[in-house]
């Protein structure tokens, strides 16, 4: 069996900030049926404080005569004994992973260049056999470059997954010396980016294969609208770029077995019990009206401003909206202002609560995802398993997974609009409210939605094939 090393900064349940953790956690559990898999993570204190580990040894990570870092290689015990941790207390013993109070840590360039090179050095020092390094997002994008320049003896290939192209790891150009690379790598053809360093470029240029987390997003990033100023570079690698849809772990996300919701269910009749409980949790009247749910980051990408503006346009219709999330202060304030203005219609929890997230999926009638862009999106797929009808913009993974409702053909399972504008979201929400009054149609869509399969079964096989391609075996 091939030896695959996942390289990431997050993995559920070990350490999580966003959807990356869910994806890597699923790969770690699903891949062993087909390949030997191991995972490298930074030794964040959020992990080492909760899980037992052994220290395999210490080693130096050399960048230059003026930058030589100390590292330790840890290995978790018991259930996660295929997980390695790269330890450096100064870099990874912090209260958060990437930054605090809305600001990135100022030494993130040093932290994640260290992590990337230390993974390769650990494999060399401790004779860890790796056929393919599977790197995830900009924090690990230097692995393919360091592998080429300094660690050819490992004879490994690389796959680089772009989970969100908007986050590229951009730093001032005068920090380039810290990377321990020759000056030839600070050029437009390499890591230079409008006078700055762009770490993600290293993964795009030097990995054997590149993938994104949905087929549509793989095509979108080749365009100026979604390419985040890297579309030209990405086009040069077009033949090596593919899209593999993220999956859902139905052992966690399934209303038949979900122990975090008020009442487990498999019919719409029982789902209503969860709706009434959700209304009570959010101190909303337990009226028979359409309830829209939102779970996610309160940021521009997620279209939260579009939702806020749309609600103000729809006050002549009866509906309720519940929000759960945290993000930019202006959007948090905007949501809170709505709750104060319309307390019988709108309520929100600013923050994150795993149990409450499950309850929103279970208790809402409709799920809002009017994203400006969405590389994959898990929320819409989770919502569908709970029989909650998604209202989405046609972009990225949302376009790949949500088929528009067509009542004339008795087909589809969501409401889809084209452009990120309040007037278009309003039209879809009004259509959803109209549909809500038709019990038979709602029942039919519920049945279609819950029968869909967005598990990892197909996607895992696509990743195994991608590893083979990276190695030149296909």
From TrEMBL:
<comment type="similarity">
    <text>Belongs to the glycosyltransferase 1 family. Bacterial/plant glycogen synthase subfamily.</text>
</comment>
<feature type="binding site">
    <location>
        <position position="16"/>
    </location>
    <ligand>
        <name>ADP-alpha-D-glucose</name>
    </ligand>
</feature>
<dbReference type="InterPro" id="IPR001296">
    <property type="entry name" value="Glyco_trans_1"/>
</dbReference>
<feature type="domain" description="Starch synthase catalytic">
    <location>
        <begin position="3"/>
        <end position="235"/>
    </location>
</feature>
<dbReference type="GO" id="GO:0004373">
    <property type="term" value="F:alpha-1,4-glucan glucosyltransferase (UDP-glucose donor) activity"/>
</dbReference>
<dbReference type="InterPro" id="IPR013534">
    <property type="entry name" value="Starch_synth_cat_dom"/>
</dbReference>
<dbReference type="GO" id="GO:0005978">
    <property type="term" value="P:glycogen biosynthetic process"/>
</dbReference>
<keyword id="KW-0808">Transferase</keyword>
<keyword id="KW-0320">Glycogen biosynthesis</keyword>
<comment type="pathway">
    <text>Glycan biosynthesis; glycogen biosynthesis.</text>
</comment>
<keyword id="KW-0328">Glycosyltransferase</keyword>
<dbReference type="Pfam" id="PF00534">
    <property type="entry name" value="Glycos_transf_1"/>
</dbReference>
<comment type="function">
    <text>Synthesizes alpha-1,4-glucan chains using ADP-glucose.</text>
</comment>
<dbReference type="Pfam" id="PF08323">
    <property type="entry name" value="Glyco_transf_5"/>
</dbReference>
<dbReference type="GO" id="GO:0009011">
    <property type="term" value="F:alpha-1,4-glucan glucosyltransferase (ADP-glucose donor) activity"/>
</dbReference>
<protein>
    <recommendedName>
        <fullName>Glycogen synthase</fullName>
        <ecNumber>2.4.1.21</ecNumber>
    </recommendedName>
</protein>
<feature type="domain" description="Glycosyl transferase family 1">
    <location>
        <begin position="287"/>
        <end position="435"/>
    </location>
</feature>
<dbReference type="InterPro" id="IPR011835">
    <property type="entry name" value="GS/SS"/>
</dbReference>
């Amino acid at each position: 069996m091939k030896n695959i090393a996942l390289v990431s900064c997050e993995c559920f349940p070990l350490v999580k900030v966003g959807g990356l953790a869910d994806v890597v956690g699923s790969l770690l559990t699903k891949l062993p049926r087909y390949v030997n898999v191991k995972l490298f993570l930074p030794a964040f204190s959020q992990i080492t404080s909760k899980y037992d580990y052994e220290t395999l040894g210490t080693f130096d990570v050399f960048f230059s005569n003026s930058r030589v870092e100390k590292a330790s290689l840890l290995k978790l015990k018991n259930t996660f004994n295929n997980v390695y941790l790269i330890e450096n207390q100064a870099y990874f013993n912090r209260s958060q992973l990437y930054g605090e109070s809305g600001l990135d840590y100022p030494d993130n360039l040093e932290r994640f260049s260290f992590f990337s090179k230390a993974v390769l050095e650990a494999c060399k020092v401790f004779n860890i056999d790796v056929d393919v390094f599977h790197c995830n997002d900009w924090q690990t994008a230097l692995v393919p470059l360091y592998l080429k320049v300094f660690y050819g003896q490992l004879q490994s290939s690389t796959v680089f997954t772009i989970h969100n192209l908007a986050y590229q790891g951009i730093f001032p150009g005068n920090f380039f010396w810290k990377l321990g690379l020759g000056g030839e790598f600070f050029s437009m053809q390499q890591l230079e980016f409008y006078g700055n360093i762009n770490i993600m470029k290293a993964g795009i240029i030097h990995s054997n294969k590149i993938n994104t987390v949905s087929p549509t997003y793989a095509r979108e990033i080749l365009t100026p609208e979604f390419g985040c100023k890297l579309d030209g570079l990405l086009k040069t690698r077009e033949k090596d770029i593919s899209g593999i849809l993220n999956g859902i772990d139905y052992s966690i996300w399934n209303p038949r077995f979900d122990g975090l919701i008020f009442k487990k269910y498999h019919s719409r009749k029982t789902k209503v019990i969860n709706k009434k409980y959700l209304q009570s949790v959010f101190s909303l009247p337990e009226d028979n009206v359409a309830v829209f749910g939102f779970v996610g980051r309160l940021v521009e990408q997620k279209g939260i401003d579009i939702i806020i503006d749309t609600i103000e346009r729809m006050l002549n219709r009866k509906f309720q909206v519940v929000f759960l999330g945290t993000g930019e202060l202006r959007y948090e304030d905007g949501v809170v202002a709505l709750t104060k203005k319309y307390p019988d219609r709108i309520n929100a929890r600013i923050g994150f609560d795993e149990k409450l997230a499950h309850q929103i999926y279970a208790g809402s009638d409709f799920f809002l995802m009017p994203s400006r862009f969405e590389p994959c999106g898990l929320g819409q797929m989770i919502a569908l398993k709970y029989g909650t009808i998604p209202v989405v913009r046609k972009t990225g993974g949302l376009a790949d997974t949500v088929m528009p409702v067509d009542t004339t053909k008795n087909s589809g399972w969501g409401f889809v609009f084209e452009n990120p504008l309040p007037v278009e979201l309003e039209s879809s929400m009004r259509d959803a409210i109209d549909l809500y009054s038709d019990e038979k149609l709602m029942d039919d869509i519920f049945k279609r939605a819950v029968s869909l399969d967005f598990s990892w079964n197909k996607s895992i096989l696509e990743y195994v094939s991608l590893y083979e391609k990276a190695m030149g075996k296909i």
